[in-house]
Amino acid sequence: MIPAAMLLEAVIRPACRSLAAAVGEPRLDTTPAHALLLRIAAVESRLEWRRQRRDGPGSGWWQVEPLTAADMLSWMAMRRHWRAWARILCPSGAADRYFAADVGAHDWASIELQQRLIVDPFFACQMARVKLWRAPDPLPIQGDVRGQARYWKRHYNTELGAGTIEDFLGARRRLLQDLEERLGWVDPE
Q1: pTM beyond cutoff 0.85
Q2: What is the DSSP string of 169-180?
Q3: 98, 74 Cβ separation under 8 angstroms
Q4: Measuring CA to CA, which residue among 158, 175, 183 is closest to residue 46?
Q5: 3-state secondary structure of 86
Q6: Burial of 155 (0-12, 13-18, 19+ CB in 10 A)
Q7: What mean pLDDT is reported for the chain?
Q8: What does the pLDDT look like over 98-114, one tens digit per residue?
Q9: Where on the phi/psi map is residue 166: left (φ > 0), alpha (ψ -120 to 50), or beta?
Q10: Is residue 158 scored above 70 in pLDDT?
């Protein structure tokens, strides 16, 4: 298990900062985004599993599915300010394979992306952040834990996902509450 403070400082903040700088969008690097990404990692993987426990496709601490990552990369490739960053995220020409409209049909692309999501937490975090960025609603503030739980369920786990708002709140309470209180994200309970 990765300590929550280490995930926040070594992965989430630098991943958001570099993504925001690369595409010229400072709203990608905010405290509400950091809080939600940390909470998503807690509920999706318990800060422990980088492979889905039940042989599902979710990978990395954020349990991003390879086809979701392919969709995020394709979306980035179609936007002028994001295109260069998408190519940096997919070095050695691999980006072009992911940007194909029918990437879901290529097993090799899914396998390659799944491995990347497992071994590269920086990449996985950025894919999770882009997924949140594309959601139509603004992120709830970091102190609105229940609002972030609802946001996660609606835009990340979705109606089709097995997770519940109670799962989100429970994972946050078990794994993150002390850190969040020290950071001033929430009031002590």
Answers
A1: yes
A2: HHHHHHHTHHHH
A3: yes
A4: 175
A5: helix
A6: middle
A7: 86
A8: 555 454 444 556 677 88
A9: alpha
A10: yes
